[in-house]
Amino acid sequence: HVQLVESGGGSVQAGDSLRLSCALSGSIYGSYCFGWFRQGPGQEREGVAVIASGGTTNYADSVKGRFTISKDNTKNTLYLQMNSLKPEDTAMYYCAARGGFWPTLRPVWPNHWGQGTQVTVS
Q: Side by side, which strands form the sheet with 77-82?
């Protein structure tokens, strides 16, 4: 059983930065990929950033150059550094995971989800 617990959300002003964290635990053996997804009010869930088991990353066009996904294996923690935040980044952000080698930004890809952390940008 894989457990993902997000933290670090909050309310900030446009242009500010936030760092989201996701504590990883459970049966994460072998190759696992991870990602951040978000769902804004009245919107469908969308992929924000993913990181493959080998460290390759991929980002949604809307966040390229502003967001950075990373993973600290010594701390079993996934991060999302968000800079130059915009009001349109307001959403519930979810940490997600799935075994394998290649993640995608498609919301149907993960089979493990965290409970989410709210980010509000005004």
A: 2-7, 18-26, 77-82, 67-72
| 18-22, 90-94, 108-112, range with the lowest pLDDT | 108-112
Backbone angles phi, psi at 48, to 5 degrees: -110, -50
At position 68, the amino acid (one-letter code) is T
Contact residues for 59 (Cβ-Cβ < 8 A; gap 6+):
48, 49, 67, 69
Q: Does the structure show a pLDDT above 80 at 91? A: yes
Residue 106 DSSP SS3: coil
What pLDDT does residue 29 have? Answer: 67
Q: Degrees (nearest 5) of the Cα angle 116, 102, 34?
A: 20
